[in-house]
Write a structure and sequence with these properties.
Helix content of chain B: 25-40%
Radius of gyration of chain A: 22 Å
CATH architecture of the largest domain in chain B: 3-Layer(aba) Sandwich
Shape of chain B: globular
Number of helices of chain A: 14
CATH topology of the largest domain in chain B: Rossmann fold
Oligomer: heterotetramer
Largest sheet of chain A: 2 strands, antiparallel
Largest interface: A-D, 58 and 52 residues
Chains: A mainly alpha, B alpha/beta, C mainly alpha, D alpha/beta
Distance between the termini of chain B: 52 Å
Strand order of the largest sheet of chain A: 1-4
CATH class of the largest domain in chain B: Alpha Beta
Strand content of chain A: under 5%
Number of helices of chain B: 17
Order of helices and strands of chain A: HHHHHHEHEEHHHHEHHH
Shape of chain A: globular
Largest sheet of chain B: 6 strands, mixed
CATH architecture of chain A: Orthogonal Bundle
Structural class of chain B: alpha/beta
Number of domains of chain A: 1
Helix content of chain A: over 70%
Amino acid sequence: MAGKSGRSINNVPEAPLKKMILSWEGILVVLLVLVNIFCAFYSEFYNLSSLLRQMPIYLAEVFLLLPMAYILVLGEIDISVGSIVCLTATMSCIVCNTGAPFIVVILTALAVGAVCGAVNGFILTRFTELPPMIVTLATQIIFRGIAEVVLGSGGSISATNTEGLILLTGKVGQVPYILFLLVVLAVIFAVVLGKSTFGRRVYAIGTNRLTAHYSGVHVQKIRFIIYTVMGVCSGICGLFLLSSSFGANTTTGKGFEMDAIAMAVFGGISSTGGKGNLAGGIISAFIIVCLRVGLGQRNVHAQVILLILGVLLICAVALPNIIGQARRAVKR
Amino acid sequence: MSDYILELKGITKIFPGVKALNNVQFQLKPGEVHALMGENGAGKSTFIKVITGVHKAEEGEMFLEGKKVDFKGPRDAQAAGIAAVYQHPTSYPHLTVAENIFMGHEIVKRGMLQWKTMNEEANKLLQQLNADFDSTAEMGTLSVAQQQMVEIAKALSTNAKIIILDEPTAALTKRESEELYRIVDKLKEEGVSIIFISHRFEDMYRLASRVTVFRDSQYIGTYDVNGITNADLIKAMVGREITELFPKPEVKIGKEMLRVENFSRTGYFRNVSFEVHAGEIVGLTGLVGAGRTEVVEAVCGITKPDSGKVYLEGQEIHIHTPSEAMDKGIILLPEDRQKEGLIMSWGLGRNVTLPTISKYAKSGFDNEKKERELSKELLEEVDTKAVDIFQPASSLSGGNQQKVVVAKALSQEMKVVIMDEPTKGVDVGAKAEIYAIMGDLAQKGYAIILISSEMPEILGMADRIIVMCNGRKTGELSREEATQEGILELAMEKGKNAGKEAR
Amino acid sequence: MKEKSLLKKITGSREALLVVILILLFAIVTALSPSFLTPKSLMEVLKNNSVTIIMALGMLCVMLVGGIDISIMSTAALSGMTIGMLLKYEKISNTLLAFVIAIAIGTLCGALIGLIISRADVPPIIATMGFMYIYRAMAYLVSNGGEWAGAATLGNYKDFANKSFLGVNSILWIMIVCYLFFFIFMKWTRTGRKIYAVGSNPNAAEVSGINVKNIKLLVYTMMGFLAGLGGAVHVAVYASAMPDLQQGGEMNVIAACVIGGVSMSGGRGTVLGALLGALILATITRALPLVGVSALWQNMIKGVLILVVVVVNVILQRIADNNALKGREM
Amino acid sequence: MNKKLVSAILCGAMVLGSVMPAAAAGVGEGQKLAMVVKSAGNAFMELAAGAFKETAEAEGATVEIVYPEAPTADAQIKVLDNLISQDFDAIAISANDVNALQAKLQEAMDAGIKVSSFDSAPNPDSRQIFVNQAGTVEVAQALMDAVLDITGGEGQWAILSATSQAANQNAWIDAMKTIMEEDDKYSKLELVEVAYGDDLPDKSTEQTAALLQNYPDLKVICAPTTVGIGAAAKYLQDNGAECKITGLGLPSEMKEYTGDDKACPYFYLWNMEGLGTLTAYTTMAMVAGDITGAAGDTYTAGELGDYEVVEAADGGTEVILGAPMEFNGENIEEWAEIF
């Protein structure tokens, strides 16, 4: 080739260990340990078994975090998930009450979730001009609205056939099934996002959508898939909520979208797209769960807990920026 | 009173980790057009931003009409009569032309903006520039050339004594450039001093009386335009001699690779047909907005054509998505490197492998080792000036970014390579290298389509030249019969075949 | 030239389109329920949606610079609750003073958000999500954990919403003043145009000497100002202050702006558009129970209508663009 | 690094959040009781919670009032999980949903925690007793009679409820419908609509306005919810409407609107503080083993007197505080001072 200067370009990455310790995830792990130490001192009831016992209801929300991380990496947002949770819980409860085999109930939840997610995906990929925020805001109202219609004037449905649901709340020793399922799914989602070609393309779309399109990435297809998976995971969340309350009502899952987004952002996944990874999101989810359990065990006022979470959230994003700015200022 | 209207001495500007300007100097005489040249990354743009107060220099002094000045921000420079027209139009697409012109120095009475007066004033300025649009038009609906005109009108509106034009012709076609020359001449007559940055030698010869050259953040020298040869100037800029700018190899033209028939897309192009053969470089030219880019984007599945057929090696193919085009070996190097070609915040390696990542992945999971090796190999093949494959694409100069785009194309199995303005904003040294790569690809037997607005480039590299005008193919010239004038005539054949006159 | 004037017509007629939609809505609702189109009924629509209508102005500014603020209703709750408690415990009794305090609190809250967003580069959705929790929690703390300030404890303040000046209800006056001010501010002042400039092209704004950070600070502060005012108006209109007032209402404000043609990516949107968007939303809310839609179906239909309005907007825009292309010379 | 600061702030916040118990001697000596309310920021609940805490602490018990983060069943499940971890002796709860808490409350009962409920009952399987503020039928009867009285015996009326899933609201509405069907004297009354204001002032106002526009001859709106009655009363009074309002509300909220010439001639409520006190005694009696929560149990609730556990309409058991109180133009001033 002409003009060849024989210049060599380095392709050996930095030592991964060093990178890992200095990363946000490293800091989060330390924080997780600190939070647990703090909680153990703060609440006399805080121990592994109480944590494991109280965890399931919180973990149900973490299922939403997994695909939400993908959506945030895309640079988008889905605020309809809480309503999808409500609708899936409602529909699967109805199916459950007909005495259908439990597998049918599970499939119903997943299918309803998938359909809702696909509706979001369809509108968003068909009308790419529309911002996800406004579309999912509308479907948020619609999905919960459908649940309200289905639930009728009581606004609540209770499971009469709880056999299968009890199965879901089972435990191995002290460890609830939900934790196993969550860990398995979390590993899958994290690896797919971090290591697979699919994940790489998601980052490409989130960083520069146009370049991704020109480079042959199926932008709309990937968006559609992710929104649909978001729906499916909402279905899983709905199923576990159903099993923890043996019923559903019009407020089921309200505000879950914000919780999931908060966990992801706290974990270093930027809402502007293209940045962060699921490991951080999952660690931060556990930090938040542990903190809520620990504070809750001393009956700290719910609003105070939310206040603390709000402060933490802003600090987590603002402090690194402020420190970075200060560092740059000092350098100059 | 000093001889110079503007003089800068010993300017040093440091960005975190880089010395962007190292002890440079510059003198501007009243009423002269002074060209500022140098390769990309030589520090020209930073220097301009120091003059206009956007950046503050760490060291050095600046004198305006002999008086030492110290700008705290762009406003101070504006107030002192310095106006700049930046390389990328710094316009507000959602606002009207008048607003864009008067942004920052609006006409205000009792705290209220005077829209009527501003619109009228803006129209006057636009008339001076022979603009064909109104001051109430929305900026985003204008063409790049028109936007450039607004920028110049903006500079005029401040009654500036010194106007800085940073690569104003980069996005302009020949005809539009002529228009710009006329405006600059007129400004000169009115006694305005002009600093002119450009990669085009023709701009410099046409306009400037003196030229200052920067290289590697340093001042190299100031020359009289009449007293310096092309070769010397290139040597000053690049630091070495470039023997041949257009190394067009003699290649035996092979069989037909790609044929496009009666391609149409409403509002963009109509009934476009052409073909490319193996080993052939076909130049596709015309004015900006003639539909060149739109045609090839439709061929590559980036947009959907309304009608028409595409044949690859004689077989009709149907392409619906960019990835289908790539699978078939039709590779597009897009026009806008930063927005379409590269992910600027990503490392070079990942950029190179983005289109091909799944080809060597193991059951959907990325083979990072192989990926790193492949990207190193490809980046070295095109001789990218980079330290490692992890550095972000944004850290490279324009020419090297273009090389990464080429490497990205090379990672795929190619049959037809479409290069859309591959040397836009690329300095002269890197240009030659890109032409060399192009020639090399042709020699290897790939069919190449070169889209370009630069006449010398088209004339120098293409075997066959297709000219488009207003969405139609207006002519086809062989290498031998092509002349600058001939191409221009075809490119401006506006309305000759079209039904009714525009407007 | 032809293409340009066509495009201009389309962008210029966005508001005209909204007016058409609004008139259509009015016509349909009136046909189904004639009592809708009476001055009294319309006045109620305005009054009952005054908080959304007022705050849409602030959201317009925030969205013009490409931001978003989901903490506004928490800010409103904090300021509304604070004056509610002050009035209840008779620390203050003057209506004007109450308004001033509420607005001051709102402005402070907004300024803090603006500082975090502009100085620490926190994405707006994250920063305002954090403050949504924080300010709401503070509203609870201010209310001593959940007291209400009811009509009886609000003294003269509660009568404010029923008073009229020059035959026009005081709440309507507030809206008129706000909209007039913003209409002039956004169109005729430098600062107003700077907001558009920052949203349209932040880099260019920086280069041309606009302090982008301060403009961002300004819009969130203005949003806070209006949120504080909204809190005070809520307390006046409903004669009660509760710590959970207007919870979830921020989405109405955002929806109003988007329906009104305000772009979420910044740069595009007008005061008139925000007003029309808010009015369309208000009409839908009002109309659903009026035309006899069963209570159970109301939410769902409201969601569908919002979706339909934004999708129809996109489709019309596409048709217009397509026509513009067809009109192009070849 | 920066996180240290954050945890320091955290510690501060948490210290604020915890409450030190006060010691005394009484029935509740050494008992650890928790009350779970529907949500924070509900003035109505605060009255009962305050009385509960005061009464139980006076009797020597330790009391925690716990607030879920949102007025939903999910949030209450999280709170219950926390309480089960903490070895409470009893939980008194006002349920956000009839059935949703069953699993958790059963888990609590299995762990030996006594579960009483007040204000809004969970289903019979998830509680040991329900302290009913006023018998459902009694409330419905009172409201029906008020409607009959205010309409003058005939005409249209409507109900403005809270949310469609509010358990107690639905129970009253159903009971009112039953009463209306069973007795001939209500035959000239026409219930035109049940509207839901979601306990939001703006939505309640909107619904009230819609009711008036759709049914110009509407004579009475019955709103068995505090936010709804307040918003509707304000709307009716501001507009000088012919239509009157009655229902259940807080005297302090309704003071402005109550009286013969005002929007609300009279309305009802039980003694919210009494409800808290009775819940406290009932809960303490259960923990002490004086009662099991079965029908027929009797116990003394301090100065409130003796109470007997009876069968509830839903198949569980309950104690009934007493008949609802009527608030009218004559006594509203006096009661508005109290709650």
